[in-house]
Amino acid sequence: MIKINRLEIENVKRVKAVKIEPTASGLTLVGGKNRQGKTSVLDGIAWALGGNKYRPSQAEREGSVVPPFLRLTLSNGLVVERKGKNSDLKVIDPSGQKAGQQLLDSFVEELAINLPKFLNATSKEKANILLQIIGVGNQLHELEQKEQEVYNRRHAIGQIADQKAKFAKEKPYFPDAPKEPISASELIRQQQEILARNGENQRKRQQLEQIQAAHFSQKEEVERLKRLLDDAILKSQQLEADLAVAQKDAIDLHDESTAELEANIRQIDEINRKVRANLDKDKAETDAGDYRQQYDTLTSEINAVRQQKTDLLTNADLPLPGLSVEDGELLYNGQRWDNMSGADQLKVAAAIVRKLKPDCGFILLDKLEQMDMDSLREFGDWLEQEGLQAIATRVSTGEECSIIIEDGYVAGQEGIQLQQPPGEIDPGEGWNAQAPSWKAGEF
Predict the structure, then answer these.
(1) Who contacts 145 (Cβ-Cβ below 8 Å, separation ≥6)?
(2) Which part of the chain is the Rad50/SbcC-type AAA domain (predicted)?
């Protein structure tokens, strides 16, 4: 991994002249009070390595007669310089090859010199950066789309099932009603059949009365007309036979009542209302059951998709143990970004930056005064363990600071010059051998 071995910055923003040799691994903490030049050091490094898009809007120190000067010596032997009126870039490659911003871009990760861009991104943007660098972003996106599609279908089915169940619950039920709606024409037909049978019965009754009258008349005729006795007896015997048949038929006759049909005809609308209500209730209960079954099936499908997502991330080459993505957000040891400690947030950011460009072995961090001493120590130990270099600032002059910036200088280097003012002879390039030495604090 490529790291920063040495940096020299002069007349950049609030920096007058500083020379720093950051520790190769771990945390180099640049301390000092406000408005002394701490952040200017980081801005200078970002400008030197990131190009003119990181050039401060007021790059030259106010009151300076000498233009900004930047020189960074990297662990791969490259020397990066920006100097002169236009702060032109010069990259000195020890191998003799031509070099420039394109070479720097090949191994300097943008987020390493602009970590706030990652820290201030939304949770979804952070997760997307991680998913893209581990190569599962597209697959996870497809699974998330599938999960959302199935979830939406299940939600719609669940709403319909609830509506059907509510509809069935609110519907009245009439246990005494028939299963199917009844027809008025059918009841009238049945009534007409009964009336027809009753009419036939009446005809037979009338016939009985007629035969009885004839029999009586004939017996009188027998009495009165003795001379016609033989004929009358024969006719009487025939009539007696007919009478026996008629009497037998009359005994078995039974008139059917139409009262129930007439009542049904009068109540047909009410009966059919009850029947339809029962049918609606039965159908709603059946539909509710069907939709609940569909809902359960879709739930199983969602769980299967979520398991695929879990397996995808479990098998992925994540940059940090305990790091994962859930519902489009980064999780570290089960905690979402806003629940992570400051040290954990920086660990996650640094690990992702390293994964983006493994050759970039450093990061720049500003404003670490928000972290307590334990968190600083924890983060510094993790950087050393991972072999990463971090150059950071903190509003403090305590022992935790590697160096202290005072009025644009490193404490102990006051008054050094990295460039000669116009008109003076340049004694040589590189470090000013006669400049006061400085001692890095130990974190």
Answers:
(1) none
(2) 6-272
